[in-house]
Specification:
Elements (H helix, E strand, L loop, with lengths): L2 E5 L2 E3 L5 E8 L7 E7 L6 E6 L7 E3 L7 E6 L4 E6 L8 E8 L15 E2 L3 E5 L2
Amino acid sequence: QVQLVESGGGLVQPGDSLRLSCTATGRTLRGLTIGWFRQAPGKEREFVAGMRRLGGTNTYYLDAVKGRFTISRDNAKNMVYLQMNSLKAEDTAVYYCAASGRDILSTLRLTETYDYWGQGTQVTVSS
């Protein structure tokens, strides 16, 4: 079992940056696929960023955040991060960290791929 807890959300202005953190306990993240998802009011949860178990360049992003968001992991600290730059109002949502024992590229963006979820952290981008 993996327990995930997100932190780092908040209220920021358009153009600002935030770094979300996800702390994992219960087992190591090494060997797991990790992902960040978000859910805005009235919308379905959507994939934002993912990293396959090998890490490195095995990262994937929602088109709307490419070039602005960066997913990373620190296996030694059992942490996952989402660096978010140039934030826009449309980035406002609850952001969730997720982990999966599956490592299949074709299913990386699907919520049902992930076995473990955090409780979410609110990100609000508003002037």
